Fold these 2 entries.
Entry 1:
Amino acid sequence: MQNLASHEDWKSCFSEVAPGLLLFARQWVQSAADAEDIVQEAFVKFWRRNHKIENRALLYTAVRSIALDFIRRDSRRARREAGAISETDEFIEPQFEFEDDTQRALAEAIDVLPCEQREVVVMKIWNELTFAEIAGVLGVSQNTAASRYRYALAALRNTLQPR
Amino acid sequence: MNDFSEIENELRKLRPAQPSPILFERIEEAMMNCREGAWSARQSRKPSPYNWLSLGFGLAAAAALVLFAAISMEHQHDGGKEIAQISRESETAPLRSSAKESTSSDKFLPAGATRLVYNTRNEGLQFARGSGQPLRRLRYQTRETWQWRNPTTGASLRVSYPSEEVVLIPVSGQ
């Protein structure tokens, strides 16, 4: 079991989990900078408590909790920003690195998934959490987590099927 | 779940955006400041209206003083009895002399008192209720030490405790 105790450890661990964590945080905030703030706070908290990196579920729980606090705290600001974005069609940083139009379409389909399905997909695909871990993060049963995942994949598949 | 293997593979090909290099620097800085942060957080915690530690020490010191005074009074009382008995039995001179020695050996005399001011904080001006004159509020943190000595035996007793004092000084305009 690897511990995050040493200085270099955290860097290698963070490099590994950061893209998935940021993607997870982006579900609640539109700005990449806000997502980075959330991930930073969660990761530092995780490291300070000397948790093992294998307990990734705790890290996602922390990100989720901090993100929800963040949007509660900044709900007014978020509304203002959402209004400004809709009015000016402001550029929002992409959450994925696209290679072709299919991938772009897939990313857009992910964006319109219901939040409860999207978070399960993000944790399962890009963070490789088990359904048991996902259930722990969300406070639901494993069956519920698995169902949400299946519904999400079905919706994505339908979106991408040629008509 | 096999039905979804194709879409799962497509999803895995999508790579999430990488974090900015600044994020690593920020986390590194946060890691470095971890201990300092925790320390300053403890320091900047909102102060309680009462300084419980000082209050505890103060109460302990007061209890010690009361106990000492009670013991001292009891000894004086007992000594008086002995002297009275001795006066009734004045013919027993050796007993009287030993009683006198005993009385004087129990006597502790004040030997010193110090008040060390180790911190003064100016808490600014304030207006007392119903007063138009501003008052400057100064908070002194001190350590008071009281000492008693028994001149016969050379034994000494010392009580020391921290205390806090708030002084309001009227400020007059020139």
Note: Residues 121 and 139 of chain B are 5 Å apart (CA to CA).
Entry 2:
Amino acid sequence: MAERSVIPFGPQHPVLPEPLHLDLIIEDERVVEAIPQVGFVHRGLEKLVEKKDFQQFVLVAERICGICSFGHSLGYCETVEALMGIEVPRRAEFLRVIWHELSRIHSHLLWLGLLADAFGFENLFMQCWRLRERVLDIFEATTGGRVILTACKVGGVEQDIENSELAAIVEDLNGMRAEYDELLRVFLKDRSVKSRLVGVGHLTKQQAREFACVGPFARASGIEEDMRLFGFGAYDALADFQPIVSSDGDGYARCEVRAREVLASIDLIAELVEKIPDGPFDQKVKGAPAKGSYAVSRLEQPRGECFYFARGNGTKFLERFRIRTPTSQNIAGMVHTLQGCELADVPLNVLTIDPCISCTER
Amino acid sequence: MDKPQVFIDIKPSELAERVQDYCERGWRFVNLCGVTVEGGVELIYSFSDGYPLENLRFVTDLSEPIDSVSTRFPNAFFFENETHDLFGVQFAGISIDFDGEFYTVSIPEPMRRHDG
């Protein structure tokens, strides 16, 4: 029997922009077991609801993560609106989804770039991030911010986007599409990419369900679950939204799902811009969440389903606010995919769940 | 479409049976949330099967450990360790038990204090 040894992986590692630690128990370069550890940068942001009132806390919520910043402000606002029974103007719902889908595009392009960097394809990495800059330019033109947008608020959005500007965004995204198609071809057809991803970190549909995986990680294993399917907010205006799903369950499938979701989001934005109604984009919010009121909300973030919970206490401060992020849900599945993989494949395997430790350590 | 808001009050002793039921019906474990309340900590367990989402809630006075659900739902280990470190709730039989070392906190059970 081969000798077992333990190799510490992280929290500092070239493939990890954020701290995640794994104790890898290996036999002959093959991982037998992996024990995860987080908690190095836990910030206790949920506790800040005791110091910031429910309207101010939007600014804290969107600082939970620099990649999903808009999504967190949206999830928070939707939860408080459910808590207080606030109906958001229809135009605001459309604008929220347009910004949210733009966030998905930039998040996936960031991840695709990191993936390319991890398997040593520097040029592909730079091309992905070059395209991502164009999405950040759209954020800057519409909100003034590139990372923290401050676009969402309880009761609507902070600013409108003119219809002519929305049409220009669609045109810009369509211009990106031709360049992106080239990158997509490399990600999905190139032999060197396939050699690093095909068959790595396999997770069956049954295992993905057992470990309650969410987002592209789950959809790459054949689970057709996507919060956008249920028509929350402006998603109910879409004629025929179908999630991108693959049944292969390996690293390549996870890459394929995210890569195709970029194109799906571009189509989705175009459809919403075509259908966006005129009208107000916010409404005045009065009062405070009632004492003992509860609300939950779910949102399809770029990394998967994000769960929000809030409880009111009759004051302008929430009694409790809770976020369960996609990464914390996917860690158990990721650890399972590491069992049996080669030590050299561990960094790529970890990366294929698109871990976000900032979100997890909110 | 409205988001489901289903909260079901249970007794702590009913948790294991309810969790088994969700497991057999193929639902997945979504979240465990602690809330500091008078007399202890309210625990809210969330389960989903696509669109449907149900939240079980009960209050523990912290005198007895709560049976871990991580044997049925492996992803629950994360949330049970977190709830232990932040609220001081004891769980029995967590599949990966960090024994209070999951988060580095400067004060014990920080979420049980109210600093507002």
Note: The beta strands of chain B are 6-9, 28-37, 40-48, 53-60, 66-67, 91-92.
